[in-house]
Amino acid sequence: MLEISDLSYSYPDGHQAIEKISLNLGAGESVALVGANGAGKSSFFKLIIGIAAASSGLIKIDELSVEKKTLKEVRQRVGMVFQNPDDQLFMTKVYDDVAFGPRNQLLSDSEVDEKVMAALEQLDILHLKDRMPHRLSGGEKRMIAIATVLCMDPELILFDEPSSFLDPKARRKVIQTLKKLTMTKLIATHDLDMALEVCDRVVILNKGKIFADGPVKEILYDEKLLLEANLELPLGLQKIN
Amino acid sequence: MHMADALVSPAVGGIMLAASAGAIAYSTYKCKDDLDEKKIPLMGVMGAVIFAGQMINFTIPGTGSSGHIGGGILLAALLGPYPAFLTLSAVLLIQALFFADGGLLALGANIWNMGFYACLLIYPLVFRPLVKKGITKGRLTLAAVLSVVLALQLGAFSVVVETLASGVTELPFTAFVALMQPIHLAIGLVEGLVTAGILLFVYNMRPELIEASAHNQKLKSDLPLKKVMASLLIFAVVVGGGLSLFASSNPDGLEWAMENVAGTAELESTGDVYDTAESVQSSTAFMPDYSLKSSEDGSAVGTSLSGVIGGGITLLLAAGTGALIYFVKKRKEKTA
Amino acid sequence: MTGISESMSTINSLEELADKKTIIHQIHPRVKLILTLLYIVLVISYKPYDITGLTFYAFYPIILMVLGEIPFMPLFKRLLIALPFSFFAGLSNIFFDRQAAFFIGSLPITFGLISFFSIMLKTIFTVMAVLILIATTSMPKIAYQLLSFKLPQMIVEQIMLTYRYISVLLQEVSSMYTAYILRSPGAKGIKMQDMGVFVGQLLLRSFDRAENIYMAMKCRGYDGKFLYAKPQPMIKSDWMILLMTAGLLFLMRFFDLGLFIGNFVR
Ligand SMILES: Nc1ncnc2c1ncn2[C@@H]1O[C@H](COP(=O)(O)OP(=O)(O)OP(=O)(O)O)[C@@H](O)[C@H]1O
Ligand SMILES: [Mg+2]
Question: Residues near A125 by Cβ (< 8 Å), separated by ≥ 6?
Answer without folding.
Answer: A140, A143, A144, A147
